[in-house]
Amino acid sequence: MRSRKGVLPIFFRKKSLNQRASTGPKQVPLPHDYKEISTSLKENEAYLRQEFANTTDIVFREFYMGETRCLAVWVDGLINSRVSHDLFRSLMLDVPPEVSRKIPSRDLADYLNRHFLPFYSTIRVEDMVELKRWVLMHKMILLVDGSPVGLVLDAETPPTRGMTEPVLESVVTGPRDSFLEPLRINTALIRSRLGDIRLKSENFIVGRRSNTLVTLMYVEDLANPEIVEEARQRLSRVDIDGLIDSSILKELIQDRRYSLFPLIKVSERPDKVVADLLEGRFAIVVDGSPQVLTAPTLFVEFLQTAEDYYMNPIVVWLVRLFRYLALFVATNLPGLYVAVTTFHQEMLPIPLVFTVAGARETVPFPAFIEALSILITFELLWEAGIRLPRIVGGAVNIVGALILGQAAVQAGLVSQAMVIVIAATAISNFALGSGYELASGIRLVRLINLVAGSVLGLYGIALGFLAFMVHLTALRSFGVPYMAPLAPLRLREMKDVIYRAPWWDMTRRPALIAGEDLTRSKTPPPAPPPERPPSQSRRK
């Protein structure tokens, strides 16, 4: 296990430079990015008003608690009005007047936090710069005159949409809830399914200007400590002005700078994230993003769906075989067709040769140009169907698939066989399980194989396949081989690759990912009840 001594000074540099403690999320402040909270409320208010100058949606609410002047600051529209109303009523009416006379001014904020704010999640802050960040992170801050401490109250109610079914990972059988944009809703969805006390969560603030809250979640005794430590270090190295979505963070912390294949899995389903946590992976939840990152990631996971684990394992075996076949067709079929019709006609049966030759008799272009033009048209239709509104998208698909395709065949620009090949390729491209990101990368692999097949025939396709396999086996996801358990070959972990074993047979977690606890299940196989001898009454 790697030591954490080299990481903690990065997370808590503020403490080492200024000898101040902070209970907030881990962040990397600059050495001069620190300002003590003054005991003078007027000075603190002047600083905040100067920092938030020309900002009309920042609310400064001054009130008196007995004889003590207090100040609350928050962003209008992001704070629950009922919570703020209860807060002001509690401080202005429920606090006895003698409290401000008996309690020293320096300790008054801590006293209020312990005795009059029992229903609020609070953070004690001694840094004015950090307090300013919390305002921008949808929190309410409370300052008391004479106290060098600020209180951060979790009273946010950010704008959000209602919970809907997953869009990219829809299933027929299984849970139908999905993540939303607010971070605390997403962590609650995970926590509601995984009620384990060893499920840990660590907060980070990422983005110099956006101040985005990021939560790292893992099960302490299941996750590999070295992998979790590596995730902490990569999050601490992120230095960007704004973090808008989890996809941006994914590019900043993945193992390779450039890769066609996704090295971190993105999911909008809480059940999939919980399943990954139970296998020893970690999850990263980004505030404002409806998708959660999980890692380490394996290539075979993109040919699986959440529904595979809710269906009959025998049926899943057949479906996964079809997905692997779809992967081969989506990457190689256009290149194979061009290679065979251009260089290897002797491999075709004689009737098929005459059929293909007759279909291509009126086509004025080589097979490569013909395939490339249809593939480009298909890519344009794909992009048009995604970008256009749903009402117009159906009409575009009808025009592209029926009218344009049929007109091209009748005009003799393309052959019927090529249309069938591209159609089979398009269908296979969308049958790759939950791997939408994998399907996007396959598009470029398909074009490369098409060029290789048109130049060198089957030899070129074989070279391209070898190059991609070498690239895949060289990839790592947080140090874990991307092609595991196929390369390196681990036969004991092949129960959830090409086929899915029944739940009672999947007894171990992936050894390359999980920590020390590798036992997943000890449930015995199902069996009928033992035969019982007939009773004496039945004999009579």
Brief synopsis:
By secondary structure, the chain is α+β, with helices and mostly antiparallel strands.
Keywords:
540 residues, 3 domains, single chain, five-stranded antiparallel β-sheet
Secondary structure topology:
Layout: H1 8-11, H2 13-18, H3 41-51, E1 58-65, E2 68-75, H4 81-94, H5 99-102, H6 108-115, E3 122-125, H7 128-136, E4 140-144, E5 150-153, H8 183-193, E6 199-206, E7 212-219, H9 225-237, H10 246-253, E8 265-267, H11 270-278, E9 282-286, E10 292-295, H12 313-343, H13 350-359, H14 367-387, H15 390-410, H16 416-429, H17 436-456, H18 458-474, E11 476-477, E12 480-481, H19 536-539
Antiparallel strand pairs: 1-2, 2-4, 3-5, 4-5, 6-7, 7-9, 8-10, 9-10, 11-12
Helix pairs in contact: 8-11, 12-16, 12-17, 14-15, 14-16, 14-17, 17-18
What is the percentage of strand-forming residues?
5-15%
- The end-to-end distance, rounded to whole angstroms, is 70 Å
Number of helices: 19
Strand order, main sheet: write it out.
1-2-4-5-3
- Supply the helix-strand structural class: alpha+beta
| Average pLDDT level | 83
Q: How many beta-strand segments?
A: 12
**What share of residues is helical?**
40-55%
Number of domains: 3
Poorly predicted regions: 1-23, 28-32
Our Rg estimate from Cα atoms comes to: 30 Å
Outline the biggest β-sheet.
5 strands, antiparallel
User: How would you sum up the global shape?
Assistant: elongated
